[in-house]
Automatic annotation (TrEMBL):
One of its GO terms (molecular function) is oxidoreductase activity. Gene3D superfamilies: NADH:ubiquinone oxidoreductase-like, 20kDa subunit (3.40.50.700). InterPro entries: Hydrogenase_assoc-protein (IPR051349), NADH_UbQ_OxRdtase-like_20kDa (IPR006137), NiFe_Hase_small_N_sf (IPR037024). The keyword Oxidoreductase applies. Keywords: Oxidoreductase, Periplasm. One of its GO terms (cellular component) is periplasmic space. This is F420-non-reducing hydrogenase subunit G. Residues 13-172 form the NADH:ubiquinone oxidoreductase-like 20kDa subunit domain.
Length: 309
């Protein structure tokens, strides 16, 4: 009998769902083992009945619930709580679900500031009131799933690599532990590192990293951080390269931006990165700002509105 799976997306962009499809032919292997009984982005299954005549939110019972996106409004909260009731196992799919993701950057502002920034422009007056008819009420902050309900499996990534989505589904069906990369991007980066003291200040990433030639292999290129450009590799969990491991950003000759979140689930990428820079003798004052160090992990109260003077 196929294992029933419910899939939901909350405060997200559908990139994680695209990773499910990007499993390619392996998706056929998965579909032979599981049955998706609810997935708004991939199939037609309504919350309030197919005719919309239901009175309450309906989500089928399932062995596995896969949820992408964080929790930003009351509708998201209602859905994830119902998912927790209906599913034996909850999988947080993607960095928005595990750590808030890009949407959690809004945690740097109050809801009022966010709405004023969104609806007000330099050329128009701010509206006296913001849209509220049929719109779910915003919560105080964008939160990761485990701030609201118990999460059983974490599958970070923006989006998670299809290799790991496939591995997770197979492991769940077969009842085996999921084995994902548990070290940092730097541990899998093939670039050349010469050690501490190579750079004192950081500069903006306005030009490609130095190479002898455009065709130079990655294992011949100097570490981007040692070239003086901020790379979040030391404090970011590996996995973006899938089973091939080599980090995708580095393959493209650009610094790691931290999309897989902290190496440990409860890590703080900003604090850990500042400590790493300081311990290597790099002037952290050369950074124009540090909020972007949490561009993928601003939930768990890592980012908060600035206090008024």
């Amino acid at each position: 009998m196929a294992v029933k799976v419910v899939q939901e997306w909350l405060n997200s962009c559908s990139g994680c769902e695209i990773s499910i499809v990007d499993m390619g032919e392996r998706l056929l292997d998965v579909l032979a083992l599981v049955e998706f009984v609810h997935s708004p982005v991939l199939m037609d299954h309504k919350y309030f009945g197919q005719l919309g005549d239901g009175k309450h939110l309906e989500i089928p019972e399932a062995a596995v619930g896969i949820v992408s996106g964080g929790v930003r409004n009351e509708e998201h909260l209602e859905i994830i709580r119902l998912m927790r009731q209906k599913c034996q196992i909850i999988v947080a799919l993607g960095t928005c679900a595990t750590h808030g993701g890009i949407p959690a950057l809004s945690n740097s502002y109050s809801n009022q500031e966010t709405l004023e920034r969104y609806y007000g422009t330099e050329s128009t007056d701010r509206p006296e009131e913001f849209p509220n008819q049929g719109v779910p009420t915003l919560l105080d902050a964008c939160s990761a799933l485990d701030e609201q309900v118990k999460v059983d499996v974490y599958l970070p990534g923006c989006p998670p690599h299809p290799d790991h989505v496939f591995a997770a589904l197979v492991a769940l069906v077969e009842g085996k532990p999921l084995d994902l990369p548990g070290r940092s991007v730097c541990d899998h980066c093939p670039t050349v590192r010469e050690g501490k003291g190579q750079v004192k200040q950081l500069r903006r990433f306005l030009q490609p990293p130095y190479q002898q030639s455009p065709d130079e292999p990655l294992d011949k290129m100097r570490c981007i951080l040692e070239q003086g450009m901020l790379c979040m590799g030391p404090v970011t969990r590996a996995g973006c390269g899938g089973d091939g491991i080599t980090p995708r950003c580095l393959t493209a000759r650009v610094p790691c931006r931290g999309c897989y979140g902290p190496v440990k689930q409860d890590g703080n990428q900003r604090l850990d990165m500042l400590n790493a820079l300081a311990s290597n003798g790099i002037d952290v004052g050369s950074l124009p700002e540090t909020v972007s160090m949490l561009r993928f992990a601003g939930a768990h109260r890592m980012l908060r509105p600035a206090r008024k003077a």
